[in-house]
Amino acid sequence: MLLTFAVATAFAAILVAVFLPQLLSPRRRLSSLADQVAVVSGGAQGLGREIVLRLAAAGCSVVVWDVDRAGLESLRTQVEASGGRIATDVVDVSQSADTKLAAERALQTWKKVTILINNAGVVSAKPLLELTDAQIQRTMGVNLLACFWTTRALLPTMKEQPHAQIVNIASVLGHIGVARLSDYCASKHGVVGFHESLCMELADQPNVVPTVVCPGTISTRMFDGIKHPFFMPPLTPEYVADCVVDRIHQGGGGMLVLPRLFHLMPFYRLLPMSLKVLAARLTGVLHSVDNVKGSS
Ligand SMILES: NC(=O)c1ccc[n+]([C@@H]2O[C@H](COP(=O)([O-])OP(=O)(O)OC[C@H]3O[C@@H](n4cnc5c(N)ncnc54)[C@H](O)[C@@H]3O)[C@@H](O)[C@H]2O)c1
Mapping DSSP to helix (H, G, I), strand (E, B) and coil, where does residue 86 land? Predict the structure, then answer.
């Protein structure tokens, strides 16, 4: 009897955790992306590139900020060849002043920005004591501080739009910690906190909708060499980009967790640390990052 009750309660909790966030998120579905202007940071490669290709294919004008000049050039050629509207700018988004100037250039070109996607990211993949000061500062600068610089540069103009969206690409590692990723996990926890504070600050500004995206591992170059635990096969960047652009189309908002199973993270967080370490040891997560080289 008690067991039946416990199983039923756990089942109900799972259903609520997985589906309730979707039901409660404010949505105003966009009929089209054709009149939208999106800025995507770190769009030259990986997930960002897939998002740019989808936005451009849907008729959105896209501005891409990245440090990878060659990647930007090939992306621009690809988008223009299929009739899309794109501008690319070599920008290090960890630098506040550079980002501010890039925002001014974007506004000069397109006159407005309605979607900001904070996607640029790096990983060091080293134990805490092997990280250099510069590596820690780079991870914080690109993954976390850049969200402040880009959002502060574009929020004033986005507030003037009838509908605008700020999409922060965090990670499931914005909710849990993993060995050799102390700087990365701290930066992604920061992105989740940044998103939640932004939601509160914009509570009386319903025309600007923040979304945070928390994917599991994606098969891009970032975590090349990672050992995937059996319960967490990698997501493809194409699939994650489809979900992100679909959420934008739906008007954005809330937390997009992929795969959905990770909506159970709040329950995992309640476990004592000794149990989490044991689980990481048994599932291989404890050493899953040992062969990851990190971003160049
Ligand atoms: N790969 C994964 O498993 C995974 C999982 C969850 C979340 N994410 C997040 O998704 C986002 C995209 O990652 P990805 O997997 O596509 O990685 P990626 O390495 O393929 O792409 C990252 C992009 O960011 C750019 N970039 C790096 N430093 C920059 C800077 N200073 N200024 C501007 N651009 C810069 C790179 O040039 C590159 O184009 C990141 O925020 C990452 O943390 C990745």
Answer: strand
